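In the laboratory, one determines a bound structure by crystallizing the protein with its ligand and collecting diffraction data. In a computational setting the workflow is compressed into a single prediction: the sequence and the ligand go in, and a structural description comes out. We illustrate the idea with 5-fluoro-uridine-5'-monophosphate.
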Amino acid sequence: HSTLKGTFAQRSKTVTHPLTAYLFRLMDLKASNLCLSADVATARELLSIANRVGPFIVVLKTHHDMVSGWDYDPEFGTGKKLSALARKHGFLIFEDRKFGDIGNTVELQYTSGSAKIIEWAHIVNVNMVPGKASVTSLANAAKKWEERSHYSVKTSVSVGGRSRGSNEDDEDDEDDDEADVAATSEGRKGSIVSVTTVTHQYEPAVSPRLDKTILEEDSGESVSSFDEPPSDRGLLILAQMSSEGNFMDERYTNACVEAAREHKDFVMGFVSQQSLNTLPEDDFIHMTPGCQLPPEEEEEGTEVKGDGKGQQYNTPQKLVGIAGTDIVIVGRGILKAGDPQEEAERYRSAAWKAYTERVR
Ligand code: 5FU
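The predicted complex, in C-alpha coordinate form:
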Protein backbone atom coordinates (compact mmCIF):
# COMPACT_ATOMS: atom_id res chain seq x y z
CA HIS A 1 0.00 0.00 0.00
CA SER A 2 1.19 3.52 -0.86
CA THR A 3 1.06 4.66 2.78
CA LEU A 4 3.88 2.24 3.59
CA LYS A 5 6.22 4.26 1.38
CA GLY A 6 4.71 7.71 1.96
CA THR A 7 6.55 9.92 4.45
CA PHE A 8 4.70 11.36 7.42
CA ALA A 9 5.29 14.84 5.91
CA GLN A 10 3.65 13.77 2.64
CA ARG A 11 0.77 12.07 4.38
CA SER A 12 0.12 15.16 6.52
CA LYS A 13 -0.76 17.05 3.35
CA THR A 14 -3.33 14.63 2.02
CA VAL A 15 -4.95 12.93 5.00
CA THR A 16 -8.62 13.77 5.72
CA HIS A 17 -8.64 14.13 9.49
CA PRO A 18 -7.20 17.47 10.72
CA LEU A 19 -5.86 15.91 13.92
CA THR A 20 -4.06 13.16 11.97
CA ALA A 21 -2.57 15.85 9.71
CA TYR A 22 -1.36 17.69 12.81
CA LEU A 23 0.05 14.48 14.28
CA PHE A 24 1.91 13.58 11.07
CA ARG A 25 3.46 17.07 11.09
CA LEU A 26 4.48 16.68 14.72
CA MET A 27 6.04 13.30 13.93
CA ASP A 28 8.01 14.84 11.09
CA LEU A 29 9.13 17.84 13.18
CA LYS A 30 10.15 15.82 16.23
CA ALA A 31 11.46 12.82 14.26
CA SER A 32 9.39 10.63 16.52
CA ASN A 33 6.82 7.90 16.07
CA LEU A 34 6.82 6.95 19.72
CA CYS A 35 3.89 6.89 22.13
CA LEU A 36 4.49 6.50 25.85
CA SER A 37 1.93 4.38 27.66
CA ALA A 38 2.02 6.28 30.95
CA ASP A 39 0.72 3.48 33.16
CA VAL A 40 1.68 4.95 36.52
CA ALA A 41 -0.02 4.87 39.90
CA THR A 42 -0.44 8.53 40.80
CA ALA A 43 -1.29 11.82 39.11
CA ARG A 44 1.97 13.27 40.38
CA GLU A 45 3.99 10.52 38.67
CA LEU A 46 1.93 10.95 35.50
CA LEU A 47 2.69 14.68 35.20
CA SER A 48 6.32 14.12 36.10
CA ILE A 49 6.88 11.38 33.50
CA ALA A 50 4.96 13.36 30.87
CA ASN A 51 7.26 16.32 31.45
CA ARG A 52 10.43 14.25 31.34
CA VAL A 53 9.60 12.06 28.37
CA GLY A 54 7.56 14.72 26.48
CA PRO A 55 10.42 15.80 24.18
CA PHE A 56 10.79 12.27 22.74
CA ILE A 57 7.17 11.33 22.08
CA VAL A 58 4.27 12.44 19.87
CA VAL A 59 1.48 10.74 21.81
CA LEU A 60 1.00 10.17 25.54
CA LYS A 61 -1.39 7.31 26.30
CA THR A 62 -3.26 7.31 29.58
CA HIS A 63 -5.48 4.96 31.55
CA HIS A 64 -6.98 7.65 33.74
CA ASP A 65 -8.88 5.05 35.80
CA MET A 66 -5.69 3.48 37.16
CA VAL A 67 -4.28 6.78 38.40
CA SER A 68 -4.94 7.68 42.01
CA GLY A 69 -5.21 11.31 42.99
CA TRP A 70 -6.57 12.37 39.59
CA ASP A 71 -7.83 15.91 40.09
CA TYR A 72 -11.12 16.38 38.21
CA ASP A 73 -11.17 20.17 38.43
CA PRO A 74 -12.05 21.33 34.91
CA GLU A 75 -9.81 24.41 35.11
CA PHE A 76 -6.80 23.33 37.18
CA GLY A 77 -7.09 19.53 37.34
CA THR A 78 -4.88 16.74 36.00
CA GLY A 79 -6.44 16.87 32.51
CA LYS A 80 -5.70 20.59 32.18
CA LYS A 81 -2.15 20.14 33.46
CA LEU A 82 -1.55 17.30 31.00
CA SER A 83 -2.90 19.54 28.21
CA ALA A 84 -0.40 22.25 29.19
CA LEU A 85 2.45 19.71 29.04
CA ALA A 86 1.15 18.47 25.69
CA ARG A 87 1.35 22.03 24.36
CA LYS A 88 4.77 22.60 25.88
CA HIS A 89 6.39 19.48 24.43
CA GLY A 90 4.19 18.86 21.41
CA PHE A 91 2.31 15.63 21.90
CA LEU A 92 -1.31 14.48 21.80
CA ILE A 93 -3.13 12.85 24.69
CA PHE A 94 -4.72 9.48 23.99
CA GLU A 95 -6.99 8.06 26.70
CA ASP A 96 -6.98 4.30 26.18
CA ARG A 97 -10.52 3.95 27.51
CA LYS A 98 -11.58 1.23 25.05
CA PHE A 99 -15.24 2.26 25.19
CA GLY A 100 -17.31 -0.87 24.71
CA ASP A 101 -21.05 -0.49 25.23
CA ILE A 102 -24.24 0.63 23.51
CA GLY A 103 -24.09 3.97 21.72
CA ASN A 104 -25.92 5.99 24.33
CA THR A 105 -23.69 4.75 27.14
CA VAL A 106 -20.36 5.33 25.39
CA GLU A 107 -21.48 8.84 24.47
CA LEU A 108 -22.12 9.65 28.14
CA GLN A 109 -18.91 7.96 29.28
CA TYR A 110 -16.97 10.05 26.76
CA THR A 111 -18.48 13.42 27.62
CA SER A 112 -19.78 13.28 31.21
CA GLY A 113 -18.97 11.93 34.64
CA SER A 114 -16.13 13.20 36.77
CA ALA A 115 -13.45 12.60 34.17
CA LYS A 116 -15.09 14.39 31.19
CA ILE A 117 -12.60 12.61 28.93
CA ILE A 118 -13.53 14.62 25.84
CA GLU A 119 -12.27 17.81 27.49
CA TRP A 120 -8.63 16.72 27.83
CA ALA A 121 -8.07 13.70 25.55
CA HIS A 122 -7.44 14.53 21.91
CA ILE A 123 -7.80 10.86 21.05
CA VAL A 124 -9.84 8.00 22.50
CA ASN A 125 -10.47 4.47 21.32
CA VAL A 126 -13.38 2.10 21.06
CA ASN A 127 -13.72 -1.66 21.33
CA MET A 128 -16.21 -2.22 18.51
CA VAL A 129 -17.50 -5.60 19.70
CA PRO A 130 -20.93 -4.08 20.60
CA GLY A 131 -21.30 -2.92 16.98
CA LYS A 132 -20.85 0.11 14.76
CA ALA A 133 -23.33 2.24 16.71
CA SER A 134 -20.67 2.90 19.33
CA VAL A 135 -18.55 4.61 16.67
CA THR A 136 -21.48 6.65 15.35
CA SER A 137 -22.43 7.81 18.84
CA LEU A 138 -18.90 8.83 19.77
CA ALA A 139 -18.65 10.66 16.43
CA ASN A 140 -21.87 12.56 17.13
CA ALA A 141 -20.74 13.44 20.64
CA ALA A 142 -17.43 14.76 19.32
CA LYS A 143 -19.19 16.79 16.65
CA LYS A 144 -21.44 18.48 19.19
CA TRP A 145 -18.47 19.22 21.43
CA GLU A 146 -16.37 20.58 18.57
CA GLU A 147 -19.16 22.90 17.44
CA ARG A 148 -19.10 24.44 20.88
CA SER A 149 -15.34 24.74 21.22
CA HIS A 150 -14.59 25.89 17.66
CA TYR A 151 -15.92 29.27 18.62
CA SER A 152 -14.52 31.81 20.98
CA VAL A 153 -16.90 33.87 23.06
CA LYS A 154 -16.90 37.62 22.79
CA THR A 155 -17.95 39.09 26.10
CA SER A 156 -18.52 42.64 27.14
CA VAL A 157 -18.21 43.30 30.83
CA SER A 158 -19.63 46.32 32.53
CA VAL A 159 -17.61 47.25 35.59
CA GLY A 160 -18.52 50.26 37.67
CA GLY A 161 -20.57 51.74 34.88
CA ARG A 162 -17.81 51.57 32.26
CA SER A 163 -18.07 48.97 29.57
CA ARG A 164 -15.20 46.98 28.20
CA GLY A 165 -15.04 44.13 25.70
CA SER A 166 -12.89 41.08 25.71
CA ASN A 167 -12.47 38.43 23.10
CA GLU A 168 -11.09 35.35 24.75
CA ASP A 169 -11.65 31.64 24.60
CA ASP A 170 -14.29 30.25 26.86
CA GLU A 171 -11.83 28.85 29.35
CA ASP A 172 -10.08 32.17 29.98
CA ASP A 173 -13.23 34.14 30.64
CA GLU A 174 -13.48 33.38 34.29
CA ASP A 175 -9.83 34.27 34.96
CA ASP A 176 -10.24 37.54 33.10
CA ASP A 177 -13.32 38.47 35.03
CA GLU A 178 -11.56 37.67 38.26
CA ALA A 179 -8.60 39.80 37.22
CA ASP A 180 -10.91 42.68 36.31
CA VAL A 181 -12.66 42.54 39.62
CA ALA A 182 -9.39 42.36 41.52
CA ALA A 183 -7.88 45.27 39.62
CA THR A 184 -10.91 47.45 40.10
CA SER A 185 -11.34 46.65 43.75
CA GLU A 186 -7.76 47.62 44.40
CA GLY A 187 -8.06 50.97 42.66
CA ARG A 188 -11.51 52.04 43.75
CA LYS A 189 -12.59 50.09 46.76
CA GLY A 190 -16.25 49.16 46.87
CA SER A 191 -17.03 50.81 43.57
CA ILE A 192 -17.99 47.76 41.53
CA VAL A 193 -21.54 48.38 40.53
CA SER A 194 -22.03 45.38 38.34
CA VAL A 195 -20.14 42.72 36.44
CA THR A 196 -22.50 41.80 33.68
CA THR A 197 -22.00 39.71 30.60
CA VAL A 198 -23.64 41.80 27.94
CA THR A 199 -23.08 39.94 24.70
CA HIS A 200 -22.04 36.51 23.55
CA GLN A 201 -20.95 36.78 19.99
CA TYR A 202 -19.56 33.67 18.37
CA GLU A 203 -16.57 33.95 16.08
CA PRO A 204 -14.51 31.24 14.42
CA ALA A 205 -11.28 30.48 16.28
CA VAL A 206 -7.95 31.18 14.59
CA SER A 207 -6.73 28.23 12.55
CA PRO A 208 -3.78 26.27 13.95
CA ARG A 209 -0.26 26.48 12.55
CA LEU A 210 2.90 24.55 13.30
CA ASP A 211 6.08 26.58 13.03
CA LYS A 212 9.32 24.76 12.43
CA THR A 213 11.43 27.86 13.17
CA ILE A 214 9.89 28.24 16.59
CA LEU A 215 10.61 24.58 17.29
CA GLU A 216 14.22 24.76 16.19
CA GLU A 217 14.89 27.82 18.33
CA ASP A 218 13.15 26.38 21.33
CA SER A 219 15.20 24.87 24.11
CA GLY A 220 12.35 22.56 25.05
CA GLU A 221 11.51 24.46 28.18
CA SER A 222 9.26 27.33 27.11
CA VAL A 223 5.51 26.92 26.99
CA SER A 224 3.70 26.99 23.62
CA SER A 225 6.61 25.95 21.40
CA PHE A 226 4.05 24.13 19.33
CA ASP A 227 0.93 25.55 17.85
CA GLU A 228 -2.25 24.41 19.39
CA PRO A 229 -3.68 21.25 17.84
CA PRO A 230 -6.98 21.66 16.03
CA SER A 231 -9.95 21.34 18.36
CA ASP A 232 -11.14 18.26 16.43
CA ARG A 233 -11.29 15.08 18.46
CA GLY A 234 -10.16 11.75 17.03
CA LEU A 235 -10.99 8.09 17.45
CA LEU A 236 -8.89 4.98 17.05
CA ILE A 237 -10.77 1.74 16.55
CA LEU A 238 -9.35 -1.19 18.47
CA ALA A 239 -9.04 -3.53 15.51
CA GLN A 240 -6.43 -5.99 16.79
CA MET A 241 -4.87 -6.66 20.18
CA SER A 242 -1.40 -7.63 21.29
CA SER A 243 -2.53 -10.10 23.94
CA GLU A 244 -2.20 -13.83 23.53
CA GLY A 245 -5.35 -15.70 22.42
CA ASN A 246 -7.48 -12.55 21.98
CA PHE A 247 -10.79 -12.95 20.18
CA MET A 248 -10.42 -10.19 17.62
CA ASP A 249 -10.59 -12.28 14.48
CA GLU A 250 -10.42 -11.23 10.85
CA ARG A 251 -14.17 -10.70 10.55
CA TYR A 252 -14.10 -8.27 13.48
CA THR A 253 -11.01 -6.47 12.13
CA ASN A 254 -12.63 -6.08 8.70
CA ALA A 255 -15.75 -4.58 10.29
CA CYS A 256 -13.50 -2.08 12.11
CA VAL A 257 -11.95 -1.01 8.82
CA GLU A 258 -15.40 -0.65 7.29
CA ALA A 259 -16.58 1.54 10.20
CA ALA A 260 -13.44 3.67 9.91
CA ARG A 261 -14.13 4.32 6.23
CA GLU A 262 -17.69 5.37 7.08
CA HIS A 263 -16.47 7.96 9.62
CA LYS A 264 -13.32 9.41 8.10
CA ASP A 265 -13.95 12.81 9.67
CA PHE A 266 -13.71 11.30 13.16
CA VAL A 267 -11.79 8.04 12.92
CA MET A 268 -8.05 8.67 12.65
CA GLY A 269 -7.13 5.03 12.40
CA PHE A 270 -6.54 1.95 14.47
CA VAL A 271 -4.89 0.37 17.41
CA SER A 272 -3.67 -2.69 15.59
CA GLN A 273 -0.74 -5.01 15.08
CA GLN A 274 -0.30 -4.27 11.36
CA SER A 275 -1.25 -1.74 8.71
CA LEU A 276 -4.90 -2.10 7.69
CA ASN A 277 -4.79 0.33 4.75
CA THR A 278 -5.85 -1.66 1.70
CA LEU A 279 -7.95 0.55 -0.61
CA PRO A 280 -5.97 3.14 -2.58
CA GLU A 281 -7.72 5.98 -0.72
CA ASP A 282 -7.10 4.57 2.79
CA ASP A 283 -4.75 6.65 4.91
CA PHE A 284 -5.42 5.60 8.46
CA ILE A 285 -2.79 5.93 11.16
CA HIS A 286 -1.85 2.82 13.10
CA MET A 287 -0.68 2.77 16.71
CA THR A 288 0.69 -0.45 18.12
CA PRO A 289 1.12 -1.64 21.70
CA GLY A 290 3.06 -4.72 22.70
CA CYS A 291 6.45 -3.24 21.92
CA GLN A 292 9.78 -3.74 23.63
CA LEU A 293 13.42 -3.67 22.67
CA PRO A 294 15.90 -6.18 24.04
CA PRO A 295 18.10 -4.65 26.74
CA GLU A 296 20.93 -2.57 25.31
CA GLU A 297 23.68 -4.90 26.43
CA GLU A 298 22.10 -7.90 24.70
CA GLU A 299 22.65 -8.98 21.14
CA GLU A 300 20.62 -7.16 18.53
CA GLY A 301 17.77 -9.31 17.31
CA THR A 302 17.09 -10.91 20.67
CA GLU A 303 13.33 -10.93 21.10
CA VAL A 304 11.47 -9.98 24.25
CA LYS A 305 8.60 -12.45 24.33
CA GLY A 306 6.02 -11.30 26.88
CA ASP A 307 5.24 -10.29 30.43
CA GLY A 308 3.88 -13.62 31.70
CA LYS A 309 0.37 -12.12 31.87
CA GLY A 310 -0.63 -12.53 28.24
CA GLN A 311 1.14 -9.52 26.79
CA GLN A 312 3.20 -10.29 23.67
CA TYR A 313 6.07 -8.05 22.56
CA ASN A 314 7.56 -7.20 19.22
CA THR A 315 10.40 -4.87 18.29
CA PRO A 316 9.83 -1.50 16.55
CA GLN A 317 11.67 -2.93 13.54
CA LYS A 318 9.13 -5.74 13.23
CA LEU A 319 6.07 -3.55 13.88
CA VAL A 320 6.94 -0.45 11.87
CA GLY A 321 9.40 -1.92 9.39
CA ILE A 322 7.65 -5.15 8.53
CA ALA A 323 4.01 -4.94 9.73
CA GLY A 324 3.74 -1.32 8.52
CA THR A 325 2.31 0.38 11.60
CA ASP A 326 3.16 4.03 12.24
CA ILE A 327 3.49 4.62 15.98
CA VAL A 328 4.78 2.19 18.60
CA ILE A 329 3.23 2.32 22.06
CA VAL A 330 5.67 1.54 24.87
CA GLY A 331 4.86 1.31 28.56
CA ARG A 332 7.01 -0.76 30.90
CA GLY A 333 9.88 -0.88 28.40
CA ILE A 334 10.41 2.81 29.24
CA LEU A 335 8.78 3.17 32.65
CA LYS A 336 10.76 0.41 34.35
CA ALA A 337 14.12 1.55 32.99
CA GLY A 338 16.71 3.03 35.31
CA ASP A 339 16.62 6.23 33.29
CA PRO A 340 13.23 6.50 31.51
CA GLN A 341 14.32 9.60 29.60
CA GLU A 342 17.35 7.87 28.12
CA GLU A 343 15.28 4.78 27.39
CA ALA A 344 12.60 6.88 25.65
CA GLU A 345 15.31 8.26 23.39
CA ARG A 346 16.50 4.71 22.64
CA TYR A 347 12.96 3.69 21.65
CA ARG A 348 12.39 6.89 19.66
CA SER A 349 15.56 6.32 17.72
CA ALA A 350 14.82 2.63 17.02
CA ALA A 351 11.23 3.29 15.90
CA TRP A 352 12.29 6.24 13.75
CA LYS A 353 15.03 4.16 12.13
CA ALA A 354 12.47 1.46 11.29
CA TYR A 355 10.26 4.13 9.69
CA THR A 356 13.01 5.84 7.68
CA GLU A 357 14.20 2.49 6.37
CA ARG A 358 10.63 1.59 5.41
CA VAL A 359 10.01 4.73 3.36
CA ARG A 360 13.45 4.77 1.77
F1 5FU B 1 -5.13 -2.37 22.80
C1 5FU B 1 -4.12 -2.69 23.53
C2 5FU B 1 -3.45 -3.91 23.25
O1 5FU B 1 -3.79 -4.63 22.32
N1 5FU B 1 -2.38 -4.19 24.02
C3 5FU B 1 -1.95 -3.38 25.02
O2 5FU B 1 -0.96 -3.70 25.68
C4 5FU B 1 -3.69 -1.89 24.54
N2 5FU B 1 -2.62 -2.21 25.27
C5 5FU B 1 -2.18 -1.23 26.30
O3 5FU B 1 -0.87 -0.80 25.99
C6 5FU B 1 -2.14 -1.75 27.70
O4 5FU B 1 -3.37 -1.48 28.35
C7 5FU B 1 -1.00 -0.95 28.31
O5 5FU B 1 -1.47 0.30 28.75
C8 5FU B 1 -0.07 -0.70 27.15
C9 5FU B 1 1.08 -1.67 27.04
O6 5FU B 1 1.95 -1.55 28.11
P1 5FU B 1 3.36 -2.32 28.20
O7 5FU B 1 3.85 -2.00 29.56
O8 5FU B 1 4.23 -1.74 27.11
O9 5FU B 1 3.11 -3.79 28.00
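The CA atoms of residues 150 and 205 lie 6 Å apart. Keep in mind that any predicted model is a hypothesis to be tested, not a measurement.
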